[in-house]
């Protein structure tokens, strides 16, 4: 069986390195009979898209298939690394050790290459820093990206701003979401036993563990449905805002995370409607347009706006 596995690896390498190689040439490379090669090709057809180009033209891979990168999962890599310790080395044919070393070297090289790619991406992304930057502030973007791509749980110390407390927790990192000049991590918190959103700049320590996780049927689109930016709620608020002609065309080119309903009025103004599960971030967005934005609905928010304006007036009296 081991002989056959090694032979299959040799055949894959040979077909990739020499597209159009014939069965006779494969037999010579693998030091076996041509009829054995034909039997092995039927097996290879189950795991790789090998095709015969026609009489006398030999074998090649269909499309852009390639053996590399190996792209082993951590579990697959661990199982393969244990292989020499669970088989009888005296029964292994010549060439097994060198073939095994080549496979593992390729895996490690690919793993190192992926790490370099993540590092380059991390360096290319310019993140903002807290206005008051402590000397201990660190950028954990690299560690978190690595954990997301390898499906590894992180052990983190996180500062919760609302309670002004730091807690140690295990988090399964699902998605990294950019919002308003900062990054947020969405993942499963083992402490809360629920999906939570974490602001990246509030992590005080991050360590990637050896624990693996699965996202299951989690859907990021469903999770952020009716969410204006990142702050989620349980409400169902239908906002209707009128934007003046001066600002209407700029509103249309806003890049939003929800899909609003927009309607042009004869005077050039714009009616903007959207249903959200939380109000704060949306209201802050509307406030920036000052008198060029008028909240029409809900009426309770018109009253809130009046109170807000009165409070501002009192400040500047």
Second-tier CATH architecture of the largest domain: 2-Layer Sandwich
Distance between the termini: 89 Å
Compute the average pLDDT: 82
Number of strands: 11
Shape: elongated
- Helical fraction equals 40-55%
- What integer value in Å does the Rg equal? 29 Å
Q: What is the count of helical runs?
A: 10
- Secondary-structure element order, as H and E? HHHEEHHHEEEEEHEHEEHEH
Q: Structural class, judged by helices and strands? A: alpha+beta
- Number of domains as seen in the coordinates: 4
* CATH fold title of the largest domain: Alpha-Beta Plaits
| Spans where pLDDT lies below 50 across 5 or more residues | none
β-strand percent reads: 15-25%
Q: Give the neighbour order of strands across the main sheet.
A: 6-5-4-3-7
- Name of the CATH class of the largest domain: Alpha Beta
Largest sheet: 5 strands, antiparallel
Pfam families: WCX (PF25583), WYL (PF13280)
Domain WCX: 236-312
InterPro entries: CBASS_pafABC_assoc_protein, PafC-like, WCX_dom, WH-like_DNA-bd_sf, WYL_dom
Protein name: WYL domain-containing protein
Molecular structure report:
It comes from Paenibacillus planticolens. InterPro entries: CBASS_pafABC_assoc_protein, PafC-like, WCX_dom, WH-like_DNA-bd_sf, WYL_dom. This is WYL domain-containing protein. This protein has ten helices and eleven strands. It has a five-stranded antiparallel sheet, with helices on one face. The longest helix has 29 residues. A hairpin with a 6-residue loop joins β1 and β2. α5 crosses α6. With 317 residues, the chain is of the alpha+beta class.
């Amino acid at each position: 069986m081991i002989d056959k596995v090694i032979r299959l690896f040799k055949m894959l390498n040979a077909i990739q390195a020499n597209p159009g190689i014939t069965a006779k040439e494969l037999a010579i490379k693998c030091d076996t009979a041509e009829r054995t090669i034909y039997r092995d090709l039927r097996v290879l057809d189950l795991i790789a898209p090998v095709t015969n180009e026609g009489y006398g033209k030999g074998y090649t891979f269909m499309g852009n298939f390639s053996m590399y990168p190996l792209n082993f999962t951590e579990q697959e890599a661990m199982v393969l690394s244990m292989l020499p310790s669970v088989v009888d080395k005296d029964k292994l044919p010549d060439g097994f050790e060198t073939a095994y070393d080549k496979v593992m070297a390729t895996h490690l090289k690919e793993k190192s290459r992926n790490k370099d790619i993540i590092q380059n991406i991390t360096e290319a992304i310019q993140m903002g820093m807290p206005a008051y930057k402590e000397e201990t502030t660190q950028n954990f973007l690299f560690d978190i990206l690595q954990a997301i791509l390898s499906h590894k749980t992180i052990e983190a110390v996180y500062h919760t701003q609302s309670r002004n407390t730091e807690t140690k927790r295990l988090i399964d990192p699902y998605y990294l979401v950019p919002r308003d000049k900062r990054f947020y991590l969405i993942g499963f918190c083992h402490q809360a036993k629920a999906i939570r959103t974490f602001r990246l700049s509030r992590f005080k320590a991050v360590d990637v563990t050896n624990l693996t996780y699965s996202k299951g049927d989690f859907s990021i689109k469903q999770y952020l449905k009716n969410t204006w930016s990142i702050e989620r709620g349980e409400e169902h608020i239908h906002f209707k805002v009128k934007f003046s002609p001066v600002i209407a065309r700029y509103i249309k080119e806003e890049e939003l995370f929800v899909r609003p309903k927009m309607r042009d009025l004869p005077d050039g103004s714009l009616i903007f409607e959207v249903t959200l599960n939380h109000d704060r971030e949306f209201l802050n967005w509307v406030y920036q347009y000052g008198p060029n934005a008028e909240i029409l609905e809900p009426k309770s928010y018109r009253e809130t706006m009046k109170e807000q304006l009165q409070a501002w007036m009192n400040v500047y009296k």
